[in-house]
Amino acid sequence: MENKVRKTNTVGDIKKAFVNLINEKGIRDINVTDITRMAGIGRGTFYTHFTDINDLLENIESELMDKLETDLSDVIPDAMQWLIVEKGARVPAPFIIETLNNFYQNREMIAALLSEQGDPYFLNKVKKIIFADLDQSVNRLDEQIEVNDDIPLDYAREFVIDELMGIIVYWISKPEPEEPRVVAQTIAKLQHKAPINVFTKQKGKLDHE
Q1: Which of the pair, 58 or 196, is modelled with greater confidence?
Q2: Which of 111, 112, 142, 148 would give a disulfide with 22, using CB separation of 3.0 to 4.6 Å?
Q3: What keyword terms does UniProt attach to this protein (predicted)?
Q4: What is d(CA 173, CA 115) in angstroms, rounded to the nearest whole number?
Q5: What pLDDT does residue 163 have?
Q6: How is the chain split into domains, by residue range?
């Protein structure tokens, strides 16, 4: 039991050091020596758990993706049902809440990976999971779905998810992100507006003042 706890703590220290180094110098410039110094461990200890930096990165991202997929598994099947059939609701979709909660629980790691210093492919990996699950939901509602203005379904899907992920990335990258329930309410308000209609002219203001 003691060895298991020690192993867990060591891996945690390695990952924490990795996150700090991403923010400090960027993922491309990190080497094993940087990590071992910051984590206070020997190189041999690092190689006991990971073969190299890429193996560490893959391990971290796989854990995050597995957790996200697990968290979404119960709610994503009804995602399109909610977005299309119940879009008039004033509360955010369950899959949005689960995504926010997942990101918030892992906010330091995810924010680092999504930053300019992080993994440029990480966001697409997240979207790939959401797309795959949403596609299953779309297939279930195939006969009930009609995209407005003859917009191809794949473009409509991309537009919806990009809007959502843009807000989530902005939120999780803030130095002090609000709690998920606060952002969820903001998303619930925004989802009723087309992007161009979010901003309106103040009453009493004239054009070209």
Answers
A1: 58
A2: 112
A3: DNA-binding
A4: 7
A5: 84
A6: 1-50, 57-195
Q: Find the largest Cα–Cα distance for the chain.
A: 72
CATH superfamily of 1-50: Homeodomain-like (1.10.10.60)
Q: Which two tokens stand for residue 147?
A: 């995209």
Answer whether 164's CB lies under 8 Å from 187's CB.
Answer: yes
The pTM of the whole model exceeds 0.70: yes
Fold assignment, 57-195: Tetracycline Repressor; domain 2 (1.10.357)
Per-residue pLDDT of 95-113, as tens digits, reads 788 889 999 999 999 999 9
Q: Are 61 and 113 in contact (CB under 8 A)?
A: yes
DSSP per-residue letters across 94-127:
HHHHHHHHHHHHTHHHHHHHHSTTS-TTHHHHHH
